[in-house]
Structures are given as C-alpha cells and as structure tokens.
Design a protein that fits this description.
Quinone Oxidoreductase, Chain A, domain 1; Rossmann fold; 6-stranded parallel sheet; 15 strands; globular
C-alpha cells in the first residue's frame, strides 16, 4: 500500500544539462514513485569512474538533463503502488544494476545481470547525486545495519564488481591470485582476495603502495616499474587468476604471461583499447580471458554481508552534495584515496 507523502519542500540535485556540461546544483520537486517503484531518501552516493558515461554523454541514447550516481545508500521514504517485501524507513541502496525487464531471453533464464534492456541508475533514470530518487523495486539492495551509508555506497559498485569477479573466477583458497592496480577497485580486491584465503600478489606502479598493499592483506607486492611483473608471478608458480582492475590494456597485455596453467585474466578495469594477446599465449597452458560486470542486487547483498562479516571496508573521501563537481574532479584526477562519496 502506498504511504502518505510527508516531505513537500523542494530538494537539491546535482545535474548535468548537456553532454560534457558542468554540474549544476538545482532545486527540484521531490518525485513521486509510480507503480513498482520506491522513493529513496539518499544519504550517501559514491562517485564512480563510470559516471563519466553520464557526464560526457557517452552512453548511447542518454537523455539530458540527467542526475548521475549508481552507488546509492539511503532509506525508503515512500512505496509506489504494488510494491511488497519492502517497508518505509528500511535502509536500501541501488547499484549499477538499476533494473531489468524480466521478459528478455536472459531474464527468462535467470541471468538478470545480462538483461538485454537493463536499466542503470544515473543513466537510464536520475541517480543518487540528489537528496531523493526514485528506483524500480527490482533494483533495491537491503543494507546491513552495521555498515554505514558512506561505507555501503562504494560497495554497491566497486565492491560487488571485485567480490563477484573473484568468487566466479575459479580460484580456490590457497591459489595465487594477483590484483593489478591498487586504486578504487584494487584496494577492495586485495581485501576480498585475502579474506577468501588466496595467496595475494598486489601489483602496482612504483614503491609507494607497497606498505598499503601489505596492510590491506597482500602477501607480496610487485612494483611493475622496477621489475617484470609477469616473470615475478611465474617465479611464484604462476597466478591462477589475475584480476585486472586498473584501466590499462597495455598493463593487462604485459601481465598475461604471468598466468599459470589453466589461469584466467579477469578483466574489470574498463579500458577502450584492445588487449593484445597472441593465440599461442591462450593455447599454451589453456589460459583464458574473461570480462566481468558488477552483478544483481542479490549479489550486492552477498557482497555487503561478506564485508560486514569479514571487515572489508572501502577507503573513502567525502564531499557534500553541493560540491559534486569538485568531488567528480577529485575522482577523475586519480589522486583520491580511494573512493569519493557524496553525503547529503
């Protein structure tokens, strides 16, 4: 049953009015959820590199003005008609998977992650860079009580992507797993890999991240500027999995030979240049390359529960909503340590 609306004051939103436009802090009326949707009071929203798809208008068919944001943590304020299983006042979040049609072939097979008409918060509809947002009920993720909103938000994209990729990689406890890149994705991947019981090799450029990588749970740190990282992995017996988190196709290509027999390069760092691997490199050792994208809200709940139990947490910098442009610039600079989160 729909609830009675209480909030009537206008809300603030950080919107993009045109492709490659600047962030504008505007006042809007609080939206009303339609059938099958809920209104969320946003308490925190992560600033993800994928928000560049909205900011620069790179996603095909995106419509403006648009409010970015797909790492949303908040509280359900109002239920639309026909919504069951959720209640007002319940903590909930929305990640990259912002809804699915339930009717395409992939959905009929239960593969909602690859829905042909998947919606994305901040691209298909207005996302979390605002004080209130409307989302389809199938996009909701329940948030554990012990996780703060600012910790939960990045786990709904960066967290689920690394957690889900690792748990589907085929690596077993005790296997050598290498994490390429100690950044927004990589610093979470190292933590998850350690908690999964892998022998973790963290790979970064330069010595400055060595101490942090060890603190996060890496057994060994490889400085790819000072040594051949692939050769270093082979000396350790070859990696069962290399999780490529930094968006550098060149770095991924150079690491491929560090895989052991039946090893797999798992790609989650979104780069646009081709990975250069010769067929003979795939054939020798029966090695593979696989891409992985995020996951469903159920996967997100698995991620959050595991983080809650294991102590995995993102390292974050927070900015108020009014400084969304500054927060976005900080994220894009590559200097943030390591996730940027807007607070309302």
């Amino acid at each position: 049953m729909a609830t009675t609306r209480v909030a009537v004051a206008p809300m603030k939103a950080a919107q993009i009015s045109k492709a490659a436009g600047d962030f504008e802090i505007v006042e809007r009326e609080i939206p009303k959820p339609g059938a099958g949707h809920v209104l969320i009071k946003v308490l925190a929203c992560g600033v993800c590199h994928s928000d560049v798809l909205t900011k620069e208008g790179l996603w095909p068919g995106i419509q403006f003005p648009r409010v970015p944001g797909h790492e949303v943590a908040g509280v359900i304020e109002e239920l639309g008609e026909g919504v069951s299983g959720w209640r007002t006042g319940q903590r909930a979040g929305v990640g990259w998977h912002g809804g699915h049609d339930g009717t395409c072939l992939q959905c009929r097979r239960g593969d909602f992650r690859n829905c042909q008409n998947m919606k994305i918060a901040g691209i298909s509809y207005d996302g979390g860079y605002q004080q209130y947002m409307v989302a389809p009920v199938e996009a909701l993720t329940a948030l554990p009580e012990s996780l703060s909103d600012t910790d939960a938000a990045p786990l709904l994209c960066a967290g689920i992507t690394t957690y889900n990729a690792l748990r589907h990689s085929g690596a077993m406890p005790g296997d050598l797993v290498a994490v390429q890149g100690i950044g927004g994705l990589g610093h979470l991947a190292v933590q998850f890999a350690n908690k999964f019981g892998y022998r973790v090799a963290a790979i970064g450029r330069g010595p400055e991240n060595a101490a942090l990588a060890k603190k996060l749970g890496a057994n060994v740190y490889i400085d790819s500027k000072a040594t051949n990282a692939a050769e270093a992995l082979l000396k350790m017996g070859g990696a069962q999995v290399i999780l490529a988190t930094a968006p550098s196709s060149k770095a991924m290509s150079e690491l491929f030979n560090g895989l052991g027999p039946n090893g797999k390069l798992m790609v989650i760092g979104a780069a646009f240049e081709p990975i250069e691997v010769a067929p003979v490199q795939l054939i020798n050792g029966s090695r593979a390359i696989q891409g992985w994208a995020s996951g469903t809200p159920a996967d997100a709940e698995d991620t959050l529960r595991f983080a809650e139990l294991s102590g995995v947490r993102p390292m974050i910098e927070t900015y108020p909503l009014e400084k969304a442009g500054e927060a976005y610039a900080r994220m894009m600079s590559g200097n943030a340590q390591f996730r940027v989160v807007l607070t309302m």
